[in-house]
Amino acid sequence: MSHILHITTTTAWEAAQQAGGYRADSLQAEGFIHLSTPEQVLWVANSRFRGHPSLVLLVVDPARVRAEVRWELPSDSDRAWLFPHIYGPINLDAVVRVVPFPPGSDGLFSLPVGV
């Protein structure tokens, strides 16, 4: 299976490194962390994070994730895509790369090279 991606802030990633694991706000609120495939991530970024500075993409190897990974339909979209959801914190050794993810001058995101 290829890598999956999570959009977060630089600050949240730095806090995760100090805490020893990554926990998104959605884990407390919804019970899981939202992720995307490389084919899905621009739709997510441009519809939910447009113009947001200081973002990074966590490149996650799902085979290394200790928590359960489920592929599910989003509840708040008409997209027929199955999105990866992680039902627990992301262990740091599952994050194989962290890629800066700045928006362009128009506020829209482009997929970084190599992602």
Observed structural traits:
115 residues; alpha+beta; ADP-ribosylation fold; three-stranded antiparallel β-sheet; 8 strands; globular
Describe the protein's architecture and organization.
By secondary structure, the protein is of the alpha+beta class. It has a single domain (4-100), classed as Protein of unknown function DUF952 (ADP-ribosylation fold, Alpha-Beta Barrel), CATH 3.20.170.20. Helices cover 21% and strands 30% of the residues. The protein is built from 3 helices and 8 strands.
Present the secondary structure layout.
Layout: E1 4-9, H1 10-19, E2 21-22, H2 25-30, E3 33-34, H3 41-48, E4 55-60, E5 68-72, E6 83-87, E7 90-91, E8 95-100
Antiparallel strand pairs: 1-4, 2-7, 3-6, 4-8, 5-6
Structural class: alpha+beta
CATH architecture: Alpha-Beta Barrel
- The arrangement of helices and strands along the chain is EHEHEHEEEEE
Rg is: 13 Å
The overall pLDDT average reads: 95
Question: Helix content range of the residues, please?
Answer: 10-25%
How many domains? The number is: 1
Shape: globular
- How many helices does DSSP assign? 3
What is the CATH topology assignment?
A: ADP-ribosylation fold
Give the CATH level 1 class. Alpha Beta
Q: What is the makeup of the main sheet? A: 3 strands, antiparallel
**Which superfamily, in CATH terms, is the homologous superfamily?**
Protein of unknown function DUF952
Identify low-pLDDT runs: none
Alpha-carbon distance between the two ends: 14 Å
Report the portion of residues in β strands. 25-35%
